[in-house]
Each structure stands twice: as C-alpha cells, then as structure tokens.
Design a protein that fits this description.
CATH class of the domain at 23-132 and 287-353: Alpha Beta
CATH topology of the domain at 23-132 and 287-353: D-Maltodextrin-Binding Protein, domain 2
Number of helices: 31
Distance between the termini: 53 Å
Helix content: 55-70%
Mean pLDDT: 88
Radius of gyration: 29 Å
Largest sheet: 8 strands, mixed
CATH superfamily of the domain at 23-132 and 287-353: Periplasmic binding protein-like II
Structural class: alpha/beta
Strand content: 5-15%
C-alpha cells in the first residue's frame, strides 16, 4: 500500500508533464541576436492570443542545429519546427526527417510566396522561406568610404587607402577589408567572378578549373601582396573589427545587417566586378525558412501548421524587413516594402539578382569539405593554386562516392543476421544463473529495486542501449541514402577503417595529443597540489583561482582561447611581443602551431582535475609517516619519493585513466579552437575525425566502426595501466 502511495504521485506528475508538453511547440533556429529578439517578441504576441499554447524557442549554431536535428528526428523526437538555410533541405529530405509540405498546405498558401522561397527537392516541397537572399555582399563604413569599389582594381586601391597604422607603432590599426575568407562559402563567389562555378549537372564537383585557380590567386594576393586583409580572420574577428571601426569594409550576408544597425554608419554594395574578366562575383542566393519535423502528428501538427502560417505571414515579414533590412518572400510584403523607398532594400534586390541559387543537393557538403581542405592548405603556403584545384576536385569526387555508397548485404551480412540472435541466446544461457539470482533478489526486495529502477533506466538509456546500438550500426550500411532502411552487412566498415592510411596518422596525432596533455596535467596538477598543501598566505584564494579553468564551461573557455591565439589581436602574441620581442605567431593558420594551440588550451583546462584529486590524496596521508622520516634524516625530496608519490599512486591511477579517456575523446577543444580541424584538417584527432565522417559526410556506419575501434584502444590501454599499477604495488 505504501508503495502504491509512492508511485501514484510520480505517475500523476509525469502525466502533467506530458499534458504541458502537448501544449508546447518547439522551434529550433539559428538567427542572430537582433533577429531572434524580434522572433521572441512576435511569438510572445502569438502566445497572448493563444493562451493554451507555449512556444519554446531554442537557438543553435548552424552546424549544431543540423547535426542535433538529425539525431533528434531520427530518434523520434526533436522540434516541431526548424528554421534554417535551404542548403540542408536535400540532406534532411533524403534522410526522411521532414514532413512534405505538399500534403499539408494547398496551392493558395504557396502562391503567396516567390518561387525561390519554396524549396523543393525530388518534386516535393520541404521548406517555406520568410527571407529571400541570405547572400553575401560588400558592406562598407561610410565614415571611411564615400563610394564603394565597382571593380577589383578599385577594391585594392580603396583597401590600401584604408589599411592604416594610425599611431605609427608598426601595427595595422584599421584594415581596408575583412571577411571570413578561409571558409569556402565566403570564397566561392569569386569563382563566378572568374567565369565558372563550383558545381555542374546539379551534383557534380567542378573545382579543377582555371576560374578556381584564378580565384585562389586573387585571394592570396589580397592578403600577401596587397596586404589589405588580416593574415588570420575568422567570422567573429571580422565582425568585431567592422563594428569597432578597425575595418573599412566587410564581406558579409544580409543576416548581419540588423546586427550593424545603430552601431556602424554602413551602406551596402555588390561584391566588386572582377576587373580581369568583367564578370560580377556570384554570391550564393538561398532562403531561410521553416520545415516541419516528420515526427509531428495529430493535434500538435495542426497547431504547428497554424504557427508556421503566422511566422511567414505578410504582416510579420513586413515587420522583419523594416527592422532588419531583409528581403521578404511574400509578394504582398515585397510590394509594401518597395513602396517605402528603403535604399538598403532596393540595393539588396539588385545584389540578389547577381547571385546564383544555392545548391540543395546533399553532395554540396562533400564539395565544401574537399574545397575547404585544399583551399586552407593553399592559404597556409603548402601547395600551389593548381595543386589545390586538382586535389579539391579529386577529394570531392572520392567523398561524394563514399557518401552515396550503398553496400548491399552479401554472405557476410546473412551470417551476421543469423549469427547475432544465436550469439545473444548463448550469452543468456551462459549467464542464466545470474539472471535467476537477480529475479530472486527482486522478489525478495521489491522496494529496493523500485528506488533503484530510475537509476537503472538512466544507465540503460544513456550508456547500455547507445553502446549496443552503436555496435549494430558499425556492422550496417547506415548512411545518407539508407537512413530509414539500413541493413546488416558485416565487418565491411571495420576493414575500411584499417585500410584507410589517413587513420594511422590521425591515431599517431591522437596518442601524441593524449600523452602530452596527460603528462602536463600530472606535472602541473601534482606540483600545484604540493604547493597548496603547504601553509601559505591566501591559500583559499589560490585554490579557488586554480580551480577556475575546470569550473568554466569548456565551450566558453575554448572560444576564449581561440580569440587569444589570433595572430594580430590575440593577447598571447601581444604578451610574447612585449615580453620577449617575438614576431607574431600564426597560431591558427599553420598546422603545427594550430595543434600546439589546441594542446595549450587543453592543458589549461585539464590540470585542475588532477590537482584536486592530488590535494585530496595528500590530506589523507598520515602525518606520522613524515615525522618518522624526519627522525630518520630524510630530506623533502626523499620524503616525496618514498612516501608521497607511492601513497598517491592508488589515488591517481583512476584519475589518470579517466584523464586519458576524456582527453583521447575531447572533441570540444580541438573542434572549437581549430574551428573544425583547421587548417586543412591537420588538427583532427580520432574523435573529431569520427564526427566529420558522421555529420559532415553522413557515413554513419564507418563512423560507428571507428568509434568502436577507439573504445577497444582505450579499453586495452586502461587495462594495461591498471595491471601495471597492481604490479608496482
């Protein structure tokens, strides 16, 4: 009876939670701050008119939004609405993650929008956009430039005029031009300016061309010959420089205009015409809009459809366009905005007319990735433009083939299909006595197992089920084209892993990464713990300050360190120059330096863990041992060697094992500090290589098999450490 009284409130609470969830529509988006602030306002207004409904808005970075939505939708959950750029439509539709809009809305709804705002793939509509454009342009500060450049010769001239050392300290205080030029999306318009395009026949790469080679040479000349752009410049750095007046011009998209309003006296212009060819650069034109998750059904679907209609309504589009200077997709909204005589909107319309449609096919991911690797190698000075063009074409073709590969189950697949159930049955037989004992204990102690059940459910959901599901995926043909109908194929992907020559270099780098980090974690952690354990002034303050790196979220710390490593504006190079008169180090654009930057960041993040563990161990060592050693004449070093370290080994062993596992699998630091493996995928460790294979190239079976190899390596390594420790005892 008492057990029933305990369970009923839990069930009632769970039921209430479910009801509240039914009245909540989740929207995932990647809008910038000003845009999402306005989105929250209009959603609040919608909620006030629909008091029984709650709209949960969740902001995610573009790449995080893509990968997280894939995982959530595949698992049967995720947001009801997703707002994102249209280039992902082909991927999501191929995977079967979206609900076709053809069956949910009639032609009257679609006819109110421009054709380019309704994104179709394989003859079905998947996305309806509220913004047309989402393209790059030249944005210039009118306090520095009266008239924007019309061609690349003028761009170079005006850029040089505005690249200035204002205080004569030998350092550039204002650059003529900044933009995230190391990323392919920001480079690609120049391929069009030199007379070609990066893709042909909708899904074939077109990178080994004279236009691509000319584009490579042009970007290098802006940086190395004309010196009007910084040597290192990612998106956030460029954005900050333009906002603070440290750059006269920036190449950015229409999504950023709301962010500049009220901060910069700006105007916009097309990317300047290429003087050599007479062609305009071709920024990719797309739309941003809403799609409905395939898992949205019943009453929730009807509510979601009504919300979507509201979010893309003419009234809201006019409101967004007025405040954010963007091009709406509704015919009526376009007419209304045109009548306002807004010069920014008029220029945007012209800039859009010079662009090319953004490809929505999944193959574009492979093309981006292959181009990115070789383009960054070119900027790093390791290959020529001709080699970069040739290798990027070759890499794109290889990756597209791997991405679209469908491995049919053969004899090996048949053996595994029948062998797995037999293997599971044998395991059950072998452990039948253990199962029988478990059931007897459950019958004898039901209350204990009721309290234990939530923990068991959590462990099963978070650890056991994902592990065995990953094993299953690793022997399947799970990929982009088999997302919903994959089959068991056997050990094919494991053979691919061991036959991939690149894996061994990445493995070596991972071992190096882990060894260096753990070595410094131990040295710094133990040394600082020994220091803090002594009687010192301000000891609590020192202990608190030294724990801070561990307490601050890794995401924030990694991005902060990335900013500190910037060649020109980072505090590390400034400090090195002031203290040792060293020239600026290209921390983020050279392979060795970038990998070193990742290691330095992780050392800073990791030593407090070992320090805390060691400090606890030191305080548990009996003081009598040290007193006896002093009586015997042992000095401090002898006490450390004969008492402290041997007593710390049993405490540090599990900490070292955990540190090795965490460091070996630490994707956060590598991915955030090096911006996804930059430059040229040279900073990848095994776990980031797995992420790239899974979420950039959609090779889920291959990624799962590689992750299992990582698991086996760590299992063997951890076991050897334990055995070595036992022998040492």
């Amino acid at each position: 009876m008492n057990l029933i009284k305990l369970i009923i409130p839990i069930l009632l609470f769970s039921g209430c939670q479910k009801v509240r969830s039914e009245n909540t529509i989740h929207v995932w988006h990647q809008m910038l701050y000003e845009n999402r602030k306005l989105l929250r306002e209009v959603c609040d207004e919608y909620e006030s008119k629909n008091p029984n409904l709650k709209i949960q808005l969740t902001y995610r970075e573009t790449e995080e939004l893509r990968s997280t939505f894939q995982a959530a939708a595949m698992g049967g959950s995720g947001p009801e609405l997703i707002y994102y750029p249209s280039d992902q439509v082909g991927t999501f539709a191929t995977m079967g993650l979206l609900k076709s809009l053809d069956s949910e809305f009639d032609s009257t709804f679609f006819n109110q929008f421009a054709d380019e705002a309704i994104i179709s793939f394989k003859n079905k509509k998947w996305l309806v956009g509220d913004v047309v454009g989402n393209n790059l342009m030249l944005i210039y500060n009118k306090d520095f430039i009266d008239n924007p450049p019309q061609n690349t010769d003028e761009l170079i001239r005006i850029g040089k005029e505005n690249t200035i050392d204002l205080n004569n300290d030998g350092k550039i205080d204002r650059y003529g031009l900044v933009w995230n030029y190391t990323e392919p999306y920001f480079y690609v318009p120049w391929i069009g300016g030199f007379g070609d395009w990066l893709i042909k026949n909708d899904n074939e790469p077109n990178l080994n061309t004279s236009a691509n080679i000319a584009g490579f040479n042009f970007i290098k000349s802006l940086r190395d010959e004309h010196k009007i752009v910084p040597v290192e410049c990612d998106y956030e750095t460029a954005n900050a420089m333009f906002k603070t007046g440290s750059a006269a011009m920036i190449i950015n998209g229409d999504w950023s205009l709301g962010d500049y309003s009220g901060i910069v006296n700006y105007d916009i212009a097309p990317l300047p015409k290429v003087s050599q060819t007479g062609y305009w650069p071709s920024p990719m034109v797309s739309t941003k809009g809403y799609s409905i998750n395939k898992n949205t059904k019943g009453k929730k679907l009807e509510e979601t459809k009504r919300l979507l209609e509201y979010l893309v309504s003419t009234e809201l589009q006019i409101n967004f366009a007025k405040k954010l200077n963007i091009i709406p997709s509704s015919h009526e909204a376009v007419r209304e905005i045109s009548n306002l005589g807004n010069p920014i909107i008029e220029k945007l319309s012209y800039i859009i007319s010079l662009g090319k449609p953004m490809p929505v096919v999944p193959e574009i991911r492979a093309i981006w990735d292959a181009l990115r690797v070789q383009y960054q190698a070119l900027l790093g000075g390791t290959i020529s433009p001709e080699t970069a063009a040739r290798e990027s074409q070759k890499g794109a073709e290889i990756q597209i083939k791997a991405m679209n590969e469908i491995i049919e189950p053969g004899l090996q697949g048949t053996i595994f299909k029948f062998g797995l159930p037999i293997f599971c049955f044998i395991l059950i037989l072998l452990f039948r006595n253990s199962f029988a004992e478990l059931f007897q204990n459950m019958s004898a102690n039901p209350i204990a197992y009721v309290f234990f059940l939530p923990a068991m459910i959590g462990i099963f959901s978070v650890i056991i089920f994902p592990f065995f599901y990953n094993v299953l995926i690793s022997i399947s043909n799970f990929s982009l084209n088999t997302f919903n109908n994959w089959e068991i194929i056997g050990l094919h992907h494991y053979l691919q892993v061991f036959s991939d020559s690149k894996i061994y270099s990445v493995l070596f780098k991972t071992v190096l990464w882990t060894g260096i980090n753990i070595g410094f974690h131990l040295f710094l952690g133990v040394s600082l713990a020994l220091l803090i354990n002594r009687t010192l002034p301000a000891k609590p303050l020192m202990r608190t300050l030294l724990i801070l790196p561990w307490a601050i979220p890794q995401y924030i710390s990694a991005l902060t360190w990335r900013g500190m490593f910037n060649q020109e504006y980072g505090s590390i190079n400034i400090a090195l120059n002031q203290l040792f008169s060293l020239n600026p180090i290209q921390w983020l654009s050279q392979p060795f330096e970038a990998f070193t930057a990742c290691i330095l960041t992780n050392i800073w993040l990791g030593f407090p863990f070992i320090m805390v563990i060691t400090l606890g161990g030191l305080q548990s060592i009996p003081k009598e041992l040290y007193e006896a050693a002093k009586v015997d004449g042992a000095n401090r070093f002898q006490q450390l060697r004969s008492i402290t370290l041997p007593m710390l080994i049993p405490i540090l062993t599990p900490a070292i094992i955990l540190g090795i596992i965490w460091t070996f699998n630490n994707i956060n630091v590598v991915w955030l500090v090096s911006n996804g493996g930059e430059p040229s995928d040279s900073t990848h460790i095994l776990v980031s290589y797995v992420y790239k294979a899974a979420f950039n190239l959609y090779r889920y079976g291959y990624a799962a098999s590689l992750s299992m190899v990582i698991f086996i390596i760590l299992l063997i390594f951890g076991r050897k450490i334990i055995i070595s420790t036992e022998i040492a005892k």
